[in-house]
Amino acid sequence: MPDTPVRATAPGREVGAVLPAAPDLLRAALADARSPRAPELSPYVPERPFPWNGPVTTYAGEPGSAIDLDRVLRLSLAAPAGTPGRLRPVPSAGALHPVRAHLLLGPGCPLPPGRYAYDPRTHRAHRRGPASDGTPPGALVVLTVAASRTVAHYGHRAWPLLLLDTGHAAAALALAGATTCDVLVSLDADGPLLAAAAGLPGAPDWQDIWPGTEPELPLAAVRLTPPGSPVAAGPPLPAWAALPRASAPTPQPGADATPPRELAAARYLLHHIAGASRRPAGTWHPAHRPGELTDEALDARRSAPPEDLNRPPGKELLARLLTIAESVLPEGPAWTVARGGATPALYAAAPGRPGLDVRAVGDARPTLAHWAAGQQWIGAAGAVLLAHGCPEDAPRAVVRSSHLAAGYATGVAQAHATALGLPSRPIGSWQQADLGAALGDTPGRDWIVHGLALGAPPTTAAGPATTAATAAATSASAPTAPPTASAAPATPPGEEERP
Questions:
Q1: What is the pLDDT of residues 154-165, one digit of tens each?
Q2: How confident is the model at residue 499 (pLDDT cuts 50, 70, 90)?
Q3: Is the dihedral of CA 274, 278, 282, 287 positive or negative?
Q4: Which end of the chain is more exposed for a tag (fewer CB within 10 A), N or C?
Q5: DSSP labels for 184-241?
Q6: How far is it, in rounded angstroms, from Cα 495 to Cα 499?
Q7: What angle do CA 421, 427, 432 make, to 5 degrees?
Q8: Cα–Cα distance, 88 to 92 (Å, whole number)
Q9: 207, 213 Cβ separation under 8 angstroms
């Protein structure tokens, strides 16, 4: 982005000193992120070197290792070979890659037990500290976000994108590990407990304890356990949190400067949202990977260019992906799919039976393009899978779960779309996207949170079958899809794509 004067800064350095803890602040921030207000320009924030410089450790892959950590990280978080500048096959919003992984390893891993920070560019783990005696077998991965570059690029819209991208990273880890490990995923563990387990300071104290470094905010965790290992009473977050703080990152110029107000607000909001009141150790859900989802499919995931997404997939394939998205996590959002073709319509999964039910007739894609930061290519996409919910007055736990679960389920759906031969492209930023109100329901209760644009397989030609496949959408009793929104300026390639 072009250089412009720095925005007004917040009065204090600590997150807690900038903004008060209040539900009204979260409600206002959610409304602002969903509003048509465009992010202000800010100075470009370059990517800083990887901050964790502990001893570099390679993955030994010893015969006794029950978890192939090298493979799991290579298929999930490692920078793809031959793609300089991209950390993951499906990049975060603006390719800014805010999510980092801290590895808490017990016996059964190819590295000695202890805490590590994972560098996705070099595919190496940097040792940060030891484990305690009696650490249970397996790996616990704490996912954090470094917010500065994403906020500089997306301003007040950044913090929901950071949640979505964390969900995608958790899905990638879970899918990569689920064939050889027992995998559990938590999207609601207490943020301060996650920070302590990873050997990190809490967000409000970070820059006082580690000046000159950028705070990382923990949002989710994934646990990989060797098959057949005894199951402990619960995931060992409290045991890891009881250890002394691990080694600090390398100070970098400018990383502890008093942040602009939007960055301070984003850090505060994420810290506030990640606080858990009822179950600090989190709710842990098993992750499964069907046999048809191969390592090759995971390795082939890419955000397809918009021109590859113009033909609508068959309704049977869309029904499969809709079912997958809905079944991934119990606390996830609701799901709908907008399909193009000769008779476009909005569909929901048919309750209690395979297939799709018509939710509304008409072409919703131009409206979706307007709502998704004016990305006009969405108006020609074959189909768009939509995660929606998260009312405007949702409490922090619902805001967190809605976005993390939407990112997680979309990541799973995209992996399955790849296995089915469907090109896809996630869509992260949505403004004024009150789907419920557009369909005649109560305003403010059912907002689009995330999306996945889908196209037919490259070898499938569109033809007369399209009309027959969508004939049910012409039913006179079905409601009408949201009307076409007024045209919005086309968004430059790479802008507001997704997290």
A1: 999 999 999 999
A2: very low
A3: negative
A4: N
A5: EEES-S-HHHHHHHTT---GGGHHHHSTTS---EEEEEEEEE-TTPPP-SS-SHHHHH
A6: 11
A7: 145
A8: 8
A9: yes
The Cα–Cα gap between 179 and 418 comes to: 17
Task: Please determine, for residue 277, whether its predicted confidence score (pLDDT) is greater than 80.
Answer: no
| Gyration radius of the chain over CA positions | 22
Q: DSSP secondary-structure letter at 307?
A: G
Structural tokens at position 71: 């493979």
pLDDT tens, position by position, 210-267: 999 999 999 999 999 988 776 555 678 999 999 999 999 999 988 888 788 899 999 9
Contact between 287 and 412 (Cβ < 8 Å) = no
- SS3 breakdown of the chain: % helix, strand, coil, rounded to 5? 30, 15, 50
DSSP 361-404: ES--HHHHHHHTTT-GGGGG-SEEEEEEE--TT--HHHHHHHHH
Dihedral in degrees, nearest 10, Cα atoms 204, 210, 213, 217? -40
Read off the pLDDT of each residue in 134-160 and give the average, rounded to a whole number: 94
Nearest in space to 145 (alpha carbons), one of 223, 196, 215: 215
For residue 84, pLDDT over 70 is answered with no
pTM here is 0.89
For 76-208, where are the E strands, in sequence order? Answer: 99-105, 114-119, 124-130, 139-145, 182-186
Query: At 430, is the secondary structure helix, strand, or coil?
Result: coil
List, as one string, the DSSP characters of 326-373.
Answer: HHS-TT--EEEEEE-SSS-EEEEEPTTSSSEEEEEES--HHHHHHHTT
- Phi first, then psi, for residue 72 (nearest 5°) are -60, -45
Residue type, 300: A
What pLDDT, on the 0 to 100 scale, is given for residue 212?
A: 94
Residue 17: which H helix or E strand, with range?
helix 15-18
